[in-house]
Design brief:
seven-stranded parallel beta sheet; 8 helices; single chain; alpha/beta; TIM Barrel
């Protein structure tokens, strides 16, 4: 995942990632958002990677992204209908979920996968209470939708993440530290 504060220049980081990695572009509020998105699209296409745009289906369409990531707040209310109606049929669609209610909503929308967070303490949301491994396992047990863990996943704890039945993990720090 990109983050305006923690990965101000995601282009260099993305160049270092393996081809089996998907990138969620979420540079909210960036003045250069569209330019960076185009650059990332070129890099990910060249490397055979997947690029999802977070929370902005118009930008995702404009750059011909591989899909859309829906932040939890966009799963509800008036905007949810806009998001849902503008999903392209072949897009990969993921959603962020922090509560069981959001998981239920994401399932009803027909998302391809969910990112459950925060699993562990994270630099991105320092005041958030982590759900821990047991909390992650409960989300995995409640759904047939593939679950990815997000938040504080490291080389030391990622084995425990997979033991819950989660299919993978997402992050910022874990991937931005790759040399």
């Amino acid at each position: 995942m990109t983050d305006l504060k923690r990965t101000p220049d995601p282009v260099e980081i993305i160049k270092k990632l393996n081809s089996d990695t998907a990138v969620i572009f979420r540079h909210y509020g960036s003045e250069n958002k569209e330019k960076i998105a185009h650059e990332l699209m070129q890099i990910t296409r060249t490397k055979g990677m997947t690029l999802l745009v977070s929370g902005d289906y118009q930008l995702a369409r404009k750059i011909n992204a591989d899909g859309l990531h829906i932040p939890e707040y966009l799963l509800y209310g008036e905007k949810a209908g806009d998001v849902y109606r503008n999903i392209k049929p072949k897009w990969l669609v993921t959603a962020a979920v922090h509560r069981a209610r959001a998981l239920n909503r994401a399932e009803k929308m027909g998302v391809d996968a969910v990112l459950v967070s925060p699993v562990f303490k994270t630099q991105s949301h320092v005041s958030a209470n982590p759900i821990g491994i047991i909390g992650l396992a409960k989300f995995v047990q409640k759904t047939r939708v593939p679950v990815f863990a997000l938040g504080g996943v490291t080389n030391k704890n990622k084995k425990r993440v997979f033991e819950t039945g989660a299919v993978g993990f997402a992050g910022i720090g874990h991937f931005s530290d790759i040399k």
